[in-house]
Structures are given as structure tokens and as C-alpha cells.
């Protein structure tokens, strides 16, 4: 046994001892922890292989002598043997070249990773999951989803409690405010809240005087509570005697309903308070339905 | 041959460059040629919009707000469709932004309106409780610099061939033109016309009086720019 092998064996013993101590002293020890046992087994194999491979190459360095034909050129006295390229290397080199041709012509153009492709897959998967999960929703679930849609999209203008933040947007806790009714009566309206009805004429065209308009605005703005003004009959022709709305003719005045809110969300709206953008591109159909259910539930 | 290359480091370097550049050629050039064209529906800025863009840059809005929507579901849900490089064809400089202290504004024109901006820029906390955005009250009194915007329009038309007064294809198959006036007076007049449309949707009496008197407050230009971001 020469010095080199002896040094190798001593190194193995020290390293395995250190492994045994460091694992054996931890919680669980080597006895009942399968992960620790595997770690120790791996360490034993690694240490032994490493030491014998090192010994082999140190021996080779001690005994090897150089031989072969030198190339003509040398760099600062350092020469180069004209050895044949190992066959494995040559094959790998050729293989890389062939793979490169394939990659440049077919591989990259056809099979490249696409960020947009991954986005499309993600979105499709999400939409499928959404549709499956919310295929059949009862009213309570719709209102619940509607509230979260409201908090994400609508509260920025209408406020957390849907009060319109001091007139900055419509107060959704009631159907109509007096100022809005008055604006519509003075200027007419073509917001198509039912989707296809005729535009509403101005109050003057309907034969209402300025004081009639004030009375009706106050009455409708108060959720149609209190004494009905005499001239409300003009409104009732299209909006119903109690302001309950007539299908295809005039929208409901005494509360929100799903059709009305859905139409506003889909097409946007411009009125006395300001402009509301359309949300058709930002919310899907289920979300619009849910938001409508929530807004309808607010004024009940 | 390899010994020859080893003995001639200059030609060796050229060879290495060619091999590496070839990969770049394959991967970058075709994609870039496609993506750098304006997307259908992307228009150059009008005089007032460009004035507003200068206000945006002057107040460093891009330090807190990005204009770049990445293709992630969470992001497109919140801000709208992901950005395409062709949509920035007329942006000089780009306002992609460095970080998002505030939300992305790439498509803010789709979901915020003139009257909302009017409230929000004067007092952000009044509409967004807990917002850390400062108020920009001086924009309501400072007058916007239309002349510089017009000078920029002339420059980019002449040097970068930005298609002012030319047919621009829109998404629905129609064509639109963005008018660039021949004279400075004409540009000021057309900016004022645009400003009147914006001011008509604003509540502040002062702003409406100023626009009626032929002045354009910075806020009007900025809102015109915000509304153009779609």
C-alpha cells in the first residue's frame, strides 16, 4: 500500500465520520428517517467514487509522458500535438451542425415558445373553469358575485356604498335623483335603457310647464313617494301608473331591473351627472348579469 | 483550416461574429419587421392630445404609471387587452414607465371619463379613498403649451413620416385622418375646438370660462390625452 492510497483511505474515513456525525446528531438521526438514510447512502457513494477517481488521475499525472507529432506553430514555447479528434467528439460536432440546420429552418420558426400562446392557453383554461363553476347560479350567488364585480369596477366612480360620492356619479341606492329627472325632462333622452325603445321627447314637447317639470322631478326623485303630481299622467303613459315601466316602451322609474342595468353596462350612458363608459369589453356576460343583480338589489 | 484560424485571430473573431449574428438574424429580424409597424387603428396624436402628453411627461406621471399591459390574465382583466408593439408606433418617447406605484394607463380612455378625471386630478382621495396620488391643482390654472406640441408634430411629420393628413386604416375597415394645420394659428384654433369638446363634459365653471375665452388649461389637454389612450 503506497502513500497515495493511504491518504485516500484516511480522507474517506474522515469525511464519512463527519457525515455520520452531522446527520446522526440531527433530529431523527439515521435510524428512523428515510431521508437521512438516503442522504448518508448518497454521501458514502460520492465520497468513495471521488477519492478513487482523484487517485487515478494523480497517478496518471505522475507517470504519463507526452508523445506524438507536434504541430508547426507554437505560442510562447507552448506547442500542440497533432492528435486525431476523438470519434465521439467529431460525431457530436456533426450532430450539433445538423441540429442547428433543423433549428434555424424548422425548429425555431415552428416550435418557438410564445408568450401570447401561453396567455391564450391560460385564458381559455380560466374561462372554461369560470363557465363550469358558475353555470347555474341562484339569485343569492349572482348578488354576491355582483358585489365583488362592483367593488372591482364600479366603486371608483359610484363609491364603496354606491352613493355616487356626493354627486360625482349616480347614486345607485335610488333609481333616479331629482336633478337627473329634471335634466331628462328638459333635454329629452335617448339612452335606450331597454335597448330599442323610441327616444324620450322633451318635457316641453309633452306639454309640461316649468313648474310641472319641477314637481315631477321632485316626486320621481323621491322614489315616487308622497302625493302624485297631477301631470304625472303624462309620464304614466309610457312608464306605467306607478312608474313600474312598460316593456319595449319606457323603462322602470321606481327601481332598477336587470334589463335596464345590463343595457347601461353594455352601452354606457351620458346624462346630467356625467358620462359612464361601457363595460361590455371589460366584463363577461355572467359578470354583467351579476352586477345587474347587485345594483337591482341595492334599491330594494 | 482550424490551424489557420488559430493563427489569424482577426478572421477567427469575424467567423465567431458571423455565427452568432446568424442566430440573431433568424430570431430577431423577421419578428421585428412585423411588430414595429403601426397596428390597425393606431392614430398619431392630435395637437391637443400631444399637448396633454407633454403635460403628462412634465409632471412625471410615468414615474408612477406604466403604459404597458403584459399578457397575463390577471393583468388583462384589470387593464384591458395586452399591449402590442405596433401600438407605440407614434409614441416619442415611449412612456412604458419604470414601475407601477399607480395603475397602468395604457387603455384608461376605455374605462374612465372626463368628469371622473376632473374630480380625480383635483383631489384623488375624494374618489379613491386611501389613494396615495398627490393632487395636481396647478393643472387647473396653468395654461397648456400648444405651440411646442405643434412644433413637435411638424418635426415628426417631416423626419419620421408620421402620417398626418393621410388616410389611416381603422379596425372597422374605414379610414380616418388626423388633421395637422398648416399654420400655428390654425393649430391653436383646432386645439381650442378639441378643448371645447372636452370642457363641455367638465363641471368646473372656471375651466369652461377659460376655454370660452380662448385659453386651454393644462388639465383639459391632459384629459384629452387620457381619453385618447384606448
What brief labels describe this structure?
heterodimer, A: 300 residues, mainly alpha, Cytochrome Bc1 Complex, Chain D, domain 2, 2 domains, two-stranded antiparallel ribbon, 10 helices, 2 strands, 1% strand, elongated, B: 230 residues, two-stranded antiparallel sheet, 2% strand
User: What about the largest sheet of chain B?
Assistant: 2 strands, antiparallel
Radius of gyration of chain B, in Å, reads: 23 Å
* Overall outline of chain A: elongated
Indicate the multimeric state: heterodimer
Instruction: Name the CATH superfamily classification of the largest domain in chain B.
Output: Cytochrome c-like domain
List the topology elements.
The complex is a heterodimer of chains A (300) and B (230).
Chain A: H1 3-24, H2 34-63, H3 87-111, H4 115-133, H5 139-158, H6 178-187, H7 210-221, H8 232-239, H9 258-267, E1 269-270, E2 275-276, H10 285-298
Antiparallel strand pairs in A: 1-2
Helix pairs in contact in A: 1-2, 5-10, 6-7, 9-10
Chain B: H1 2-7, H2 9-35, H3 47-58, H4 73-79, H5 114-122, H6 124-127, H7 146-160, E1 168-169, E2 175-176, H8 184-200, H9 205-212, H10 218-228
Antiparallel strand pairs in B: 1-2
Helix pairs in contact in B: 3-7, 3-10, 5-10, 8-9, 8-10
Q: What does the model show?
A:
The complex is a heterodimer of chains A (300) and B (230). Chain A is mainly alpha-helical and 300 residues long. Chain A folds into two domains: 3-63; 135-298, Cytochrome Bc1 Complex, Chain D, domain 2 (Orthogonal Bundle), CATH 1.10.760.10. In chain A, 57% of the residues lie in helices and 1% in strands. Chain A contains ten helices and two strands, in the order H-H-H-H-H-H-H-H-H-E-E-H. Chain A has helices at residues 3-24, 34-63, 87-111, 115-133, 139-158, 178-187, 210-221, 232-239, 258-267, 285-298; strands at residues 269-270, 275-276. In chain A, strands 1-2 form a two-stranded antiparallel ribbon. In chain A, helix 1 runs antiparallel to helix 2 (34-63), helix 6 packs antiparallel against helix 7 (210-221) and helix 9 (258-267) packs across helix 10 (285-298). Chain A is elongated. With 230 residues, chain B is an all-alpha fold. Chain B has two domains: 2-35; 47-228, Cytochrome Bc1 Complex, Chain D, domain 2 (Orthogonal Bundle). Helix content of chain B is 50%, strand content 2%. Chain B has ten helices and two strands; from the N terminus they run H-H-H-H-H-H-H-E-E-H-H-H. Chain B has a two-stranded antiparallel sheet with strand order 1-2. The longest helix of chain B has 27 residues, at 9-35. Chain B is elongated, with a radius of gyration of 23 Å. Classes of the chains: A mainly alpha (300), B mainly alpha (230). Chain A binds chain B through residues 71, 73, 104, 108, 115-116, 118-119, 122-123, 126, 153, 156-157, 159-160, 165-166, 168-169, 273-277, 279, 281-282, and chain B through 3, 6-7, 22-23, 26-27, 71-73, 76, 80, 82, 110-116, 119, 126-129, 201, 203.
Amino acid at each position: 500500500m503506497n502513500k497515495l492510497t493511504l491518504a485516500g483511505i484516511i480522507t474517506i474515513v474522515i469525511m464519512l465520520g463527519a457525515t455520520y456525525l452531522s446527520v446522526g446528531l440531527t433530529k431523527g438521526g439515521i435510524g428512523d428517517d428515510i431521508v437521512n438514510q438516503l442522504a448518508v447512502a448518497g454521501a458514502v457513494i460520492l465520497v468513495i467514487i471521488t477519492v478513487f477517481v482523484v487517485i487515478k488521475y494523480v497517478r496518471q499525472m505522475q507517470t504519463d509522458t507526452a508523445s506524438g507529432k507536434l504541430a508547426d506553430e507554437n505560442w510562447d514555447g507552448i506547442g500542440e500535438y497533432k492528435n486525431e479528434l476523438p470519434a465521439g467528439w467529431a460525431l457530436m460536432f456533426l450532430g450539433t451542425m445538423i441540429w442547428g440546420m433543423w433549428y434555424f429552418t424548422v425548429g425555431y420558426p415552428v416550435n418557438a415558445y410564445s408568450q401570447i400562446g401561453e396567455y391564450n392557453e391560460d385564458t381559455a383554461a380560466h374561462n372554461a373553469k369560470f363557465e363550469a363553476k358558475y353555470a347555474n347560479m341562484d339569485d343569492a350567488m349572482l348578488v354576491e358575485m355582483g358585489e365583488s364585480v362592483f367593488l372591482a369596477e364600479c366603486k371608483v366612480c359610484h363609491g364603496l356604498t354606491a352613493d355616487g360620492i356626493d354627486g360625482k356619479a349616480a347614486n345607485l341606492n335610488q333609481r333616479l335623483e331629482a336633478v337627473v329627472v329634471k335634466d331628462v325632462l328638459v333635454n329629452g333622452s335617448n339612452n335606450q335603457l331597454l335597448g330599442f325603445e323610441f327616444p324620450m321627447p322633451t318635457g316641453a314637447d309633452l306639454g309640461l310647464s316649468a313648474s310641472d317639470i319641477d314637481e315631477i322631478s321632485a316626486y320621481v326623485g323621491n322614489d315616487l313617494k308622497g302625493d302624485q303630481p297631477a301631470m304625472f299622467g303624462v309620464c304614466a303613459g309610457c312608464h306605467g301608473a306607478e312608474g313600474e315601466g312598460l316593456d319595449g316602451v319606457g323603462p322602470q322609474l321606481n327601481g332598477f331591473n336587470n334589463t335596464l342595468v345590463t343595457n347601461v353596462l353594455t352601452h354606457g350612458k351620458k346624462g346630467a351627472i356625467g358620462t359612464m363608459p361601457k363595460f361590455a369589453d371589460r366584463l363577461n356576460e355572467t359578470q354583467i348579469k351579476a352586477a345587474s343583480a347587485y345594483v337591482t338589489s341595492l334599491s330594494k | 483550416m482550424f490551424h489557420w484560424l488559430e493563427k489569424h485571430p482577426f478572421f477567427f473573431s469575424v467567423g465567431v461574429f458571423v455565427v452568432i449574428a446568424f442566430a440573431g438574424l433568424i430570431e430577431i429580424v423577421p419578428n421585428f419587421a412585423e411588430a414595429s409597424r403601426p397596428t390597425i387603428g393606431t392614430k398619431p396624436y392630435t395637437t391637443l392630445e400631444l399637448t396633454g402628453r407633454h403635460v403628462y411627461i412634465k409632471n412625471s406621471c410615468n414615474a408612477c404609471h406604466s403604459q404597458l399591459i403584459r399578457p397575463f390574465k390577471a393583468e388583462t382583466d384589470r387593464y384591458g387587452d395586452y399591449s402590442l408593439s405596433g401600438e407605440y408606433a407614434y409614441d416619442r418617447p415611449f412612456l412604458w414607465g419604470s414601475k407601477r406605484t399607480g395603475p397602468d394607463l395604457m387603455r384608461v380612455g376605455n374605462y374612465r371619463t372626463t368628469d371622473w378625471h376632473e374630480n380625480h386630478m383635483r383631489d384623488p382621495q375624494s374618489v379613491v379613498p386611501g389613494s396615495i396620488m398627490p393632487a395636481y391643482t396647478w393643472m387647473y390654472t396653468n395654461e397648456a403649451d400648444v405651440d411646442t406640441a405643434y412644433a413637435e408634430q411638424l418635426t415628426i411629420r417631416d423626419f419620421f413620416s408620421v402620417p398626418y393628413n393621410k388616410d389611416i386604416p381603422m379596425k372597422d375597415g374605414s379610414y380616418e385622418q388626423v388633421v395637422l394645420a398648416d399654420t400655428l394659428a390654425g393649430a391653436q384654433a383646432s386645439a381650442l375646438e378639441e378643448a371645447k369638446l372636452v370642457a363641455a363634459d367638465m363641471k368646473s365653471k372656471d375651466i369652461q370660462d377659460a376655454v370660452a375665452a380662448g385659453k386651454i388649461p393644462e388639465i383639459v389637454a391632459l384629459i384629452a390625452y387620457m381619453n385618447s389612450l384606448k
